[in-house]
């Protein structure tokens, strides 16, 4: 979709469709009132009839508006005049894009000048609008063969605004487009099935992102490099697969070289069978999404790099496939991590923490300003938080607060859980320095406790996105693009 900011008079507009806010389904916004005057009361007649329903986001379509050349109008219930909450705002935007898409139009105008969201800037409003318009029109079509897909005609949105808001709207468009692009990249990667999206495929996509851009550079650690570095945990996962594991490192340099980078580490298990601790068949197909963390890291870098933000960010994709085979790790095997700590692998299905722990040790060399790892790590987090909030764990209260507030702003929320010492005893091992599982209690916390043992040297947070990154089945099956919006907002807040 293309987006533009416009200052346009309704009296002379020839738009195919204009969306105008109505407060609480009855009270006309200034732009609606203006059109009401032009059309000799056509809008007030419709509102009096009660055709615009009381729920926020409800819409009503009007054809043949009198005394002007506008082809159609959509009135939408924009909630209270003072502004809606951000939750309601998103409800409205989601409904509006469905209404617009259902029409046989190529372009639409949305009047944004008198549509407000409590405590949010116009820039935020436009950024979110584009994010949810793009999400609402997204389809994963890359694997469609001959089955015909009917695509929507709509390909242009004009935001109608006042002259004073023009710059803010343009800034919002820039942010929104960059974010939507990053989210789309993440979705396309995560939705790609395991036979296509392998560790090599992730490395190829990262290379494509860096190609021709001077602020992005790429390096890839192959299995032989990881062997030299002593990454026994990562290799314990990838050794069971015929697909070679890769540690993909993307370096975005937007600030001077000496400025400490923020590091994002993504779990990139391109398919998680569970390994020898094989998963039961029903829960296996959705394990194509087990690289959603890595996808969100790549999507975030794409968004940041496109805007050439003055910040340094390093993205690391810990990419491997977890397979059972004659070469696979056995439950009970003991391996040595890059940190020197040894791990008794009691369950090969707890593989995410194994690839991540060596990545967390490796990135210490960058002397990071902060480190956030992003992983579809535990089924237990779905039990705790469902698909509403991602699980947050951190060894730094200030960093945790920053991530929580970025999540609020981006409408991509997290909820913090503890990583107290008391939980650490659950991953004690009789034979090694630790086990890779902590029993049936507090599974997300013990997974985070495991990671914390490798992240002592810097400010670190862990996001468990198993519940938020994708919907495994049903009509809206697919990757959600979370937590790209959260990560981008966190990085904006560091500028
Ligand atoms: N990738 C899974 C976690 C997961 C489950 C993600 C459901 C998305 C949806 C992870 O590798 C895993 O298998 N975790 C185990 C850990 C257990 C063996 C300690 C789990 O959650 O059951
Ligand atoms: Mn697993
Ligand atoms: Zn996994």
Quick summary of this structure?
The protein has 495 residues and is an alpha/beta fold. The protein has helices at 30-38, 42-48, 86-101, 122-137, 166-191, 199-210, 223-229, 232-238, 292-306, 352-362, 380-385, 397-410, 421-424, 443-452, 484-493, and strands at residues 2-6, 18-23, 27-28, 59-63, 72-77, 107-111, 156-160, 216-221, 246-253, 262-272, 312-322, 333-336, 342-345, 370-375, 390-394, 414-416, 434-435, 460-464, 470-471, 478-479. 34% of the residues lie in helices and 21% in strands.
Molecular structure report:
The chain has 495 residues and is α/β, with parallel strands linked by helices. It has 2 domains: 2-138 and 152-160, Leucine Aminopeptidase, subunit E, domain 1, CATH 3.40.220.10; 182-493, Zn peptidases (Aminopeptidase, 3-Layer(aba) Sandwich). Helices cover 34% and strands 21% of the residues. The protein contains 15 helices and 20 strands. The chain has helices at residues 30-38, 42-48, 86-101, 122-137, 166-191, 199-210, 223-229, 232-238, 292-306, 352-362, 380-385, 397-410, 421-424, 443-452, 484-493; strands spanning 2-6, 18-23, 27-28, 59-63, 72-77, 107-111, 156-160, 216-221, 246-253, 262-272, 312-322, 333-336, 342-345, 370-375, 390-394, 414-416, 434-435, 460-464, 470-471, 478-479. The strands form 4 sheets. The protein has an 8-stranded mixed β-sheet, sandwiched between helices. Helix 4 (122-137) runs parallel beside helix 5. The longest helix is centred in the middle third of the chain and has 26 residues, at 166-191. It is elongated. The two termini are 28 Å apart. The mean pLDDT is 96. Bound molecules: ligand BES, manganese (II) ion and zinc ion. Zinc ion binds next to strand 10.
């Amino acid at each position: 979709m293309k987006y533009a900011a416009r200052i346009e008079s309704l009296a002379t507009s020839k738009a195919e469709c204009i969306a105008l806010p109505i407060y609480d389904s009855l009270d006309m916004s200034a732009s609606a009132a203006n059109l009401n005057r032009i059309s000799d009361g056509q809008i007030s007649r419709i509102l009096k009839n009660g055709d615009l329903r009381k729920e926020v986001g409800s819409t009503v379509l009007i054809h043949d508006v009198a005394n002007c050349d506008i082809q159609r109008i959509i009135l939408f219930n924009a909630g209270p005049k003072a502004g809606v909450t951000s939750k309601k705002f998103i409800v409205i935007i989601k409904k509006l894009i469905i209404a617009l898409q259902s029409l046989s139009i190529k372009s639409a105008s949305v009047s944004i000048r008198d549509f407000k969201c409590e405590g949010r800037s116009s820039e935020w409003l436009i950024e979110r609008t584009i994010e949810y318009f793009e999400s609402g029109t997204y389809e994963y079509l890359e694997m469609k063969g001959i089955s015909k897909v009917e695509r929507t005609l709509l390909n242009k949105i004009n935001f109608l605004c006042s002259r004073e808001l023009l710059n803010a709207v343009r800034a919002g468009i820039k942010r929104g487009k960059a974010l939507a692009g990053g989210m789309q990249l993440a979705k396309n990667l995560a939705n790609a099935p395991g036979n296509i999206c392998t560790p090599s495929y992730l490395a190829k996509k990262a290379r494509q992102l860096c190609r021709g851009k001077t602020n992005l550079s790429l390096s890839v650690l192959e299995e032989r490099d990881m062997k030299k570095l002593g990454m026994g945990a990562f290799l314990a996962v990838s050794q069971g697969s015929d697909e070679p594991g890769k540690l993909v490192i993307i370096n975005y340099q937007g600030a001077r070289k000496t400025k400490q980078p923020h590091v994002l580490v993504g779990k990139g298990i391109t398919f998680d069978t569970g390994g020898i601790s094989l998963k039961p068949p029903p829960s296996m197909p959705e394990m194509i999404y087990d690289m959603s963390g890595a996808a969100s890291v790549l999507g975030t870098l794409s968004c940041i790099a496109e805007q050439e933000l003055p910040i340094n960010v390093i993205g690391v994709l810990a990419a491997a496939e977890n397979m059972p085979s004659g070469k696979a790790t056995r439950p009970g095997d003991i391996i040595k991590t890059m940190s020197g700590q040894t791990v008794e692998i009691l369950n090969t299905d707890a593989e995410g923490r194994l690839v991540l722990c060596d990545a967390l040790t490796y990135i210490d060399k960058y002397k990071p300003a902060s480190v956030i790892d992003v992983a579809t790590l535990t089924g237990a987090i779905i039990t705790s938080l469902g698909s509403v909030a991602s699980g947050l764990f951190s060894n730094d209260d200030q960093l945790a607060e920053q991530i929580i507030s970025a999540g609020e702003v981006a409408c991509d929320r997290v909820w913090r859980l503890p990583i107290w010492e008391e939980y650490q005893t659950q991953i004690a091992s009789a034979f090694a320095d630790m086990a890779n599982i902590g029993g049936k209690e507090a599974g997300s916390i013990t997974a985070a406790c495991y990671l914390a043992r490798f992240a002592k040297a810097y400010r670190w947070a862990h996001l468990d996105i198993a519940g938020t990154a994708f919907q495994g089945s049903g009509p809206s099956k697919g990757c959600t693009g979370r937590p790209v919006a959260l990560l981008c907002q966190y990085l904006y807040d560091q500028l």
